[in-house]
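Quick log. Single chain, no ligands specified.
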Amino acid sequence: MGIPCKTSAGHAELAAREQRLSQRHRLLLLLVDGQRTLEEVVEQGRRAGVPRGYIDELFALGLIVIGPPPTAPMPLDGPDTVGPGTAVSDTELARLDAGDASFAQARQMLIGLLRSHVPLAGAVTMLRVRRARSRAELQALLPDVRARLERVRQPGEMREQLLRVESLLAS
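-> predicted structure:
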């Protein structure tokens, strides 16, 4: 079919929660990233317990539309202002990552693990990992990351990656 994309109203809803969407609606709206097909969004939503009809409601509310995928990821011009914790801009992230390559690699590994194994349930944890500004902050998040990943029965590869993250942060 097509690629669903958030409208400006969809982005605003994630930031302001004006329409008082249910948690299931919000989870489905988070899955709409302009890269996944409609079928992929519906399937991932189904796995998370979101009925197919919820996507139709998001269309009806004008929060998402079918459109072409963006040609490039939208850069974050200012701080990310959605969710818990202190916002961090892409410029600040680049500065932090340039100052400590092991820290940057550890952050990216954790985000990759969460994104691939618990994209929905780990969304807030992923945001907290992204916003970590030091090795200590990232290490403090490891128990939360482990807890999220253990819910999907942690295969050996995930354990090895977590051990690698720990060694990167300890070096």
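The CA atoms of residues 5 and 34 lie 5 Å apart.
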